[in-house]
Amino acid sequence: MSRALALKPGTGTALVRHIILFIVAAITLVPVIWVAAAGFRTQISLLIGEFLFTPVMTNFTEVLFSKTSDFLLNYRNSLIVGIASTILCVGTATLAAWSLNRMDWPKWVVHVFLAWALVFHMIPSIALAGAWFGMMRTIGLDNSFLGLILAHAVLNLPMALWLMAVFVRDVPVELVEAARIDGAGTPTILGQVVLPIIAPGLAATSVLTFLFSWNEFAVALTLTMKQTATVPVAIAKFAQDYEIQYTQMAASAALSILPALVLLLVAQRFIVKGLTNGAVK
């Protein structure tokens, strides 16, 4: 009887692991659920701290369809900037990774270049915003999509370069050499040999780059105005001088999660496969 009730070897460890994972998941999800729930409250209900409340759709209606709200325009702006900067950033990072790993650069050049990319990535974006504003204003790209797209591409390029360098480096040299023997040029090799192999890594890098661009605030606030403002900038404007519209801010924040959620659900398999392959190799 005692043997029947005894735990199997490793059961206790598995139980502890699941408890830890549950706690971590709760720490991550509870704030998100609280913000999403706040979007269905009235301002008074939120401020007095009611635990049980009657859900309302007023905040979402106000955010999406009010004549004074530009949130749909901001949503469109974020999609334009996020998609365009991701294409530009990941494309440049892939070509740079190919150059660093497959061309005859001295080793010290490669190490210095990657080290500089890492140092640049550690610089806070707010430290660059002022200089970029002056530069964009001088060349006429302030308050424009192109200026913000270029800024976001530069901000995310170091991360994309480091990730793509790992995936490109692990492409078998024999495949590339066989393609060259068959007469394929570099564009053909990249398009028909390399890209299919690094597709999971490319998907993972693209998703991460888009999410970083979508959530970026400091540079977007500096380089945009009403017509080109992105979602993070729009959410911040709910905090005014004499009033903070908490529930409308929460509704906007809940809506801003949707693209990231859709991307993660659609590309989850590629993200896990890409990042796992990069880590293992």
TrEMBL record:
One of its GO terms (cellular component) is plasma membrane. Its main location: membrane. One of its GO terms (biological process) is transmembrane transport. Residues 75-267 form the ABC transmembrane type-1 domain. It holds the Pfam family BPD_transp_1. It is found in: Cell membrane. The keyword Cell membrane applies. It is a multi-pass membrane protein. Keywords: Cell membrane, Membrane, Sugar transport, Transmembrane, Transmembrane helix, Transport. CDD domains: TM_PBP2. The chain crosses the membrane at residues 15-37, 44-66, 78-100, 112-133, 145-168, 189-214, 246-267. PANTHER family: INNER MEMBRANE ABC TRANSPORTER PERMEASE PROTEIN YCJP, MALTOSE TRANSPORT SYSTEM PERMEASE-RELATED. Belongs to the binding-protein-dependent transport system permease family. This is Multiple sugar transport system permease protein. It comes from Devosia enhydra.
